[in-house]
Amino acid sequence: MASAAEQMASSMSFGAFSKATELKKRLWFTLFALIIYRIGTYIPIPGVDPTVLADVFAQNSGGVLGMFDVFAGGALGRMTIFALNIMPYISASIIMQLMTSISPQMAQLKKEGEQGRKKINQYTRYGTVLLATLQGYGIAVGLEGMSMSSGQNAVIDPGLFFRITTVITLVGGTVFLMWLGEQITARGIGNGISLIIFSGIVAALPSALVGTLELGRTGALSTFVILFLLIMSIAVIAFIVFMERAQRRVLIQYPKRQRGNKTYGGQNSHLPLKLNTAGVIPPIFASSLLLMPITVVGFSAGSGPEWLTTVTTLLGRGQPLYMLLYITGIVFFCFFYTAVVFNPDDTADNLKKHGGFVPGIRPGKRTSEYLDYVLTRLTVTGAAYLSIVCILPEILVSQWAVPFYFGGTSLLIVVSVTMDTVAQIQSHLLSHQYDGLIKKSKLGGRRK
Questions:
Q1: Residues contacting 57, CB < 8 A, separation 6+
Q2: In whole angstroms, what is the distance from residue 105 CA to residue 339 CA?
Q3: Contact call for residues 88 and 174 (beta carbons, < 8 A)
Q4: Which residue, among 373, 261, 378, 282, has the nearest Cα to 329 in the 3D structure?
Q5: At what angle do helices 223-245 and 408-447 cross, to 10 degrees?
Q6: Are 183 and 33 in contact (CB under 8 A)?
Q7: Distance CA 269, CA 254 (A)
Q8: CB under 8 Å to 269, separation ≥6 — which residues?
């Protein structure tokens, strides 16, 4: 009986999908945009010797450069026009969100609705260009200092012209990706920025799997370790799905109201509070803040002063200081982004206006304090969960030199973005079914 019901539900959803022309247009647009992004990750910037570049990245593939290359979809390793990826935009978004919490003027802009949001987005774009320019110049200088052991330089013709063309190319690539992500969000399915990072990780999974099996063939990894990694990856995926769906439901009651001879209200409802309200944002934000400065340091550590080499060593993959800073960033952004997304005071005021209350808690300030208390406890658990999942790749890389793609951070991004995209597809299908029912009811009413 259960299997028959599932088949009926799947056939109904397939039938609804075949009729949902708007949804199909959005899916095709998203797919086309991601294909354009993947093509761009293979267009190299001018003036760089790919042989020297491949040699340098082969030596640093297990380090910070390799980790950032995962988020860049392989574009950094090939030094293409999308080498900076979308990270400057994410960093600019972090700065703007911090400013809305610190600056009264920015906080006022946030409260102005659509107009204020447009201004904040415009400031974020300006910040993206500025950060991409600084990071692009740092990469250009770093490339000029890269060379093989034989003495062959990575840059064919170093100088001011190379630096200017590299900065313009990298900034243009980042701005294009920023625009592409906004177009996917507006005209496609899912969050455009998250999908761009998601597509880069997924595209590299087959080669990472082949690389792991090759390590097993050559004896670098034992068969037991490879089986353990596969089982662990499945377990981590199941754990992520469970934790992302976990929520605390706060009971809300509405009192009965007498109007004439009729009684209104008296219903019970629930306020769902997710265990991980911030989603996949904290690890992405923490990575974007950590990786770009470390990447610039890593590029210039060989020819720079001694303290740069010391910093590079302390902030290397698997080092205690790096893991401490990474966990600190994840915990901070868990609490910060949760505070941005959910405001207990506003929620308590809305409940009070509509007559709702939490049983045993007085409406107003006491309700706000209770919601803040519950949300804080949930965020502590959510931050611990994200920290455990994201620190897994550091242990795997430092102990067994496992490809980063099998780590917790990449799996977290892939699973979370997939769940979010599927949820949006289901909401579009549900909306299409409701529209069809409304049209049928209107036609039936006209015939009568």
A1: 65, 66, 69, 77
A2: 19
A3: yes
A4: 282
A5: 40
A6: yes
A7: 8
A8: 251, 252, 253, 254, 356
Q: Which residue, among 327, 334, 369, has the nearest Cα to 348 in the 3D structure?
A: 369
DSSP 8-state assignment for residue 361: S
Angstrom distance (rounded) from CA 160 to CA 6:
64
pLDDT digits (tens, 9 = 90+) for 355-383: 788 888 888 888 888 989 999 999 999 99
What's the burial of 332, exposed, middle or buried (CB within 10 Å: 0-12/13-18/19+)? middle
182-196, 230-244, 246-260, 317-331: the lowest-pLDDT one: 246-260
Provide the pLDDT for residue 379.
92
Higher-scoring residue by pLDDT: 395, 275: 275
> DSSP letter at 221?
S
Q: How many CB atoms lie within 10 A of CB 45?
A: 22
Handedness of CA 96, 102, 106, 109 (dihedral sign): positive
Please report how the helices 281-300 and 306-314 are oriented relative to each other, as an axis angle in degrees rounded to 10. Answer: 150
Longest dimension (CA), the chain: 94
State residue 12's pLDDT score: 46
Cβ proximity of 238 and 380 under 8 Å: no
The owner of tokens 């590079």 is 312
Q: Of the ranges 73-77, 78-82, 422-426, which one carries the lowest mean pLDDT score?
A: 73-77
Between the CA of residue 192 and those of 34, 75, 168, what are the distances in Å? 9, 18, 23
**Hey, what domains does the chain have and what are their CATH numbers?**
23-439 (1.10.3370.10)
**What is the pLDDT at residue 174?**
93
Nearest residue to 429 (alpha-carbon basis) of 9, 8, 1, 6: 9
* The residue count for the chain: 448
